[in-house]
Design brief:
The complex is a heterodimer of chains A (616) and B (243). With 616 residues, chain A is α/β, with parallel strands linked by helices. Chain A has five domains: 112 residues, Glutaredoxin (3-Layer(aba) Sandwich); 210 residues, NADH-ubiquinone oxidoreductase 51kDa subunit (Rossmann fold), CATH 3.40.50; 84 residues, Ubiquitin-like (UB roll) (Roll); 89 residues, NADH-ubiquinone oxidoreductase 51kDa subunit, iron-sulphur binding domain (de novo design (two linked rop proteins)), CATH 1.20.1440; 55 residues, Alpha-Beta Plaits, CATH 3.30.70. Helix content of chain A is 41%, strand content 15%. Chain A is built from 26 helices and 20 strands. The model of chain A has no long low-confidence stretch (mean pLDDT 93). Chain B is α+β, with helices and mostly antiparallel strands and 243 residues long. Helices cover 24% and strands 21% of the residues of chain B. The longest helix of chain B is centred in the middle third of the chain and has 17 residues. Classes of the chains: A alpha/beta (616), B alpha+beta (243). At the A-B interface, helix 19, helix 20 and helix 21 of A face strand 4 and helix 2 of B.
């Protein structure tokens, strides 16, 4: 590997790379090898491509890349041709020969595997034609489609480490000015402007400073940070080097969950590469600046995503938050000034430094410039990772990018911001998504989790789910958080199970106030959001549970009963599948459920082809 | 360095590094707390000492045991909001320690005589309701004052508990009883019976050494620890020898 001893050496290496690429004139095939596609067999698809390319003698004409996440996890394994951005979906090894033949040998398109409009059937060959991609602004994620995550040359050839080179050229003061002007707000959920954070840290008197990348992504259903670390570890590393240079730090940490083995593996490789290339370690690019990064694997406690708990964990102590009356930028890790940002924030830094704050603030809203990656999950058609310009509405994200609600069912609510966020109802769909607006609506941006829900979701049950998650994940230090969340869970369970009265709802609100005001860290103070936001927007649904002892969405088991209606054809399938054997009925006669024995497992409803099983 | 600020509008002075609760008490302002003791590091677990602090124009409710004094802050130690939230914290604690005198008394001061959060008798496992409110005074006293570190918190969230490593009997516990003395809810259980010093909650039993006059003195581990820490002659407690 080339060792760059100066900024010029890096630039000339990039130029040489680009020139070679031009000469080679190879076609590139990108196979998504993110965690989602790997789970459905992306590795086998890569192998199949290798074999088929060899079979056709195309080794010298085709460049095969296993890339990071391409976003539309629902339709994996995804394959993309970066030259014209053609995307193929649901690719299995069996389909590979056709693609190689039609797209590489004949230089056309494999029409059978292209996306198509679900209504008209019209083909949507390229990213610009596919609504999922076309409505996004893929500032960061675009790189995932172009580069092999662990190929440093790939990253350099798409402009990688240009931001670092520029930072070294203009010096720390100008970097801080630019970062402050860009008002890049912390993508981990805090939304604090990174430039101001950096400045305070840089000005805090000390002989030692740390930078930390928070990759302890723990929200259920969220995988934004994972896919950046897996798809472009160098973006994060470059951001951290720029940050360290600006702040005056020589030691950095990436705190990443051990449940992210692929991210750890790729990050480790990437770090080895930059060390060998003179981009990390001693005398970076011959400027005399020293900085190295260590990986710290977290044990999986949700609370360790809180900055002070994370730092305690790196120090080898129990991951318990401490009071931040003195900020971590002044006294953080080992009591030294510490600048912590999350993965997405760090990955955005190189772009801002390279292109400037003016370029960055053109995107997004005034208060929240730039883009934000969301992991869009739940009852949407296109489950996956989307990058939207700040200020895009919830409707754009859920319906344009997400393709709407599955099975054409009505949209009911969207939970943003993970377990600490809130649920917003349908009449908030046109709310622009940015830090301040979501906060004012009783939810939050969080780190970008977005769970869409349909009419078969019970909001009481949703609140109960998140409280259950948080009562287990609270560190347990504060009475208000440990006992408060546990008792909130108990009270919401009372509602869901039909034991509650209207006084219970008042008690929930009283207790929630104290959990919010009286807890030390953000886990406790924001734990009440799911229950308070659902109480605010879906109070009728709570009242139905309390007054009528009914669960309108048909979810809360204690409050529903299963019945078979006259649609029943007497096919016997539900009777055979019922684990409690509590369905009676003869062939071609309407069946009957013995509700006294029914455990409400729902199998009968799932297997019925005639829509004959109803929930009251 | 002297730090000047106000408590309930009264100008006060403190040394840098002091906590608001200590300064407030010195000036005669009453602030309830259960997990604070001046001999150990503030921890901020019980959340009873909630106050309102205005700093740089921003008002925030916060605990004051772990809030270091800062120039120009304005502290309010009691008002309707503070009262209501302290009452809720005490109602939560009362459900955990319904028989602990200190909790019952303090809760009553805030108008809480029964907890609406407590489940009906018998529906919660009894070991969870031994009156421990997880304030961590025992842990801090053992680590910082006695310097033994026999105790720690185990697990997290609603499963959190306190005891020896892996919730086993702490083998380095000298049974000095400082934990039991510090405990606000008296839930540890200190006893001397049949020649043994017993700390019930930790399941620790150690035989007692006796004075020349035949009076029970302390467990041998404790005496040894004292000799080591205070640099005493090895036979300091042995002049009479065990009976």
């Amino acid at each position: 590997m080339t060792k760059f001893t100066s900024v010029e050496a890096l630039h000339s290496h990039r130029e040489a790379l680009l020139a070679t690429k031009k000469d080679e004139n190879k076609k590139t095939v990108s196979v998504c090898a993110g965690t989602g596609c790997k789970a459905v067999g992306a590795d086998l698809v890569v192998e199949a491509f290798k074999a088929e390319i060899a079979k056709n003698g195309l080794e010298n004409a085709v460049h095969l890349k296993a890339t990071g996440c391409l976003g539309l996890c629902e339709k994996g394994t995804l394959v993309m041709m970066p030259a014209d951005q053609t995307v193929y979906h649901s690719i299995t090894p069996k389909k590979v020969p056709t693609i190689v033949e039609q797209a590489l040998v004949q230089d056309g398109r494999a029409d059978d595997f292209l996306f198509a409009d679900p209504e008209t059937g019209a083909k949507q060959p390229t990213m610009n034609d596919i609504p999922f991609y076309a409505s996004q602004k893929r500032l960061l994620l675009d790189k995932n489609t172009l580069i092999d995550p662990i190929c440093l040359d790939d990253y350099i050839s798409v402009g990688g480490y240009k931001g670092l080179a520029k930072a070294l050229e203009i010096g720390p003061d100008k970097v801080i000015d630019e970062m402050k002007k860009a008002t890049l707000r912390g993508r981990g959920g805090g939304g604090f402007p990174a430039g101001r954070k950096w400045e305070t840290c840089r000005n805090a008197p000390s002989d030692k400073r740390y930078v930390i990348c928070n990759a302890d992504e723990g929200d259920p259903g969220a995988f934004m940070d994972a896919s950046l670390l897996e798809g472009q570890p160098h973006s994060v590393i470059e951001g951290m080097i720029i940050g360290a240079y600006t702040i005056g730090s020589d030691e950095g940490y990436v705190y990443v969950r051990h449940e992210y083995p692929l991210a750890v593996e790729r990050l480790t490789k990437a770090l080895e590469q930059v060390r060998a290339s003179g981009l990390l370690g001693e005398n970076i690019l011959g400027t005399g600046f020293n900085f190295d990064i260590k990986i710290n694997k977290g044990g999986g406690a949700f609370v360790c995503g809180e900055s002070t708990a994370l730092m305690a964990s790196i120090e080898g102590r129990v991951g318990e938050p401490r009071a931040k009356h003195i900020h971590t930028v002044v006294a953080g890790l080992n009591d030294k000034p510490t600048n912590l940002n999350n993965v997405e924030t760090w990955a955005t830094v190189p772009l801002i430094v390279e292109h400037g704050a003016d370029w960055f603030t053109q995107m997004g809203t005034k208060g929240s410039p730039g883009t934000k990656i969301f992991s869009l999950v739940g009852k949407v058609n296109n489950t996956g990772l989307v990058e939207a310009e700040m200020g895009a509405t919830l409707r754009q994200i859920i319906f344009d990018m997400g393709g709407g609600i599955r099975g054409g069912r009505p949209f009911k609510a969207v939970q943003t911001g993970g377990p600490s966020g809130g649920c917003l109802p349908a009449d908030k769909l046109d709310v622009p998504v940015d830090f301040d607006t979501l906060w004012n609506e009783g939810s939050m941006m969080g780190s970008g989790g977005m769970v869409a829900m349909d009419d078969q979701t019970c909001m009481v049950d949703v609140a109960r789910y998140f409280l259950d998650f948080l009562k287990f994940e609270s560190c347990g230090k504060c009475t208000t958080c440990r006992e408060g969340i546990r008792r909130l869970h108990q009270l919401v369970s009372d509602v869901a199970e039909g034991r509650a009265t209207e006084e219970t709802l008042d008690l929930i609100e009283t207790l929630a106030e104290t959990v919010e005001k009286g807890s030390l860290c953000a886990l406790g103070t924001s734990a009440v959001n799911p229950v308070l936001s659902t109480l605010k927007y879906f109070r009728e649904e709570y009242l139905a549970h309390v007054r009528d002892k009914k669960c309108p969405a048909g979810v809360c088991k204690e409050l529903i009963t299963y019945h078979i209606n006259e649609n029943c054809t007497g096919c016997l399938i539900c009777k055979r599948r019922c684990p409690e054997q509590c369905i009676a009925g003869e062939n071609k006669q309407i069946h009957v459920i013995d509700t006294s024995k029914c455990t409400k497992c729902g199998i009968c409803k799932d297997v019925c082809k005639f829509d004959a099983v109803e929930i009251y | 360095m002297t730090v000047k600020f106000t408590i309930n509008g009264v100008p006060v002075e403190a040394e840098q590094g002091e906590s608001v609760i200590e300064v407030a008490r010195r000036y005669g302002f009453e602030i309830p707390s259960l997990c604070h003791h001046h001999a150990v590091t503030p921890y901020g677990a019980c959340r009873v000492c909630l106050v309102e602090i205005t700093k740089g124009g921003r008002k925030k409710m916060t605990t004051c045991c772990n809030y270091e004094v800062q120039e120009g802050i304005e502290v309010i130690t009691d008002n309707e909001d503070i009262h209501r939230n302290r009452a809720t914290v005490l109602e939560l604690l009362l459900a955990e320690a319904p028989k602990a005198e200190a909790i019952v008394k303090l809760a009553a001061e805030y108008g809480v005589t029964h907890s609406r959060y407590a489940l009906p008798e018998g529906s919660e496992p009894t070991e969870e309701r031994d009156g421990c409110i997880l304030c961590g005074l025992c842990v801090r006293v053992c680590e910082e004052v006695v310097e033994v570190s026999a105790l720690s918190f185990n697990a997290r969230g609603d499963k959190r508990n306190v005891g020896g490593p892996y919730m086993d009997t702490p083998q380095n516990c000298i049974a000095c009883g400082a934990c039991a003395w510090a405990c606000p809810t008296n839930c540890i259980g200190f006893e001397e019976k049949d020649g043994m010093r017993i700390l019930k909650k930790w399941n620790r039993e150690l035989p007692l050494e006796y004075t020349e006059a035949g009076q029970p003195l302390a467990p041998r581990f404790q005496l040894r620890h004292f000799i080591e820490k205070a640099n005493l002659p090895k036979d300091f407690y042995k002049k009479g020898g065990p009976r």
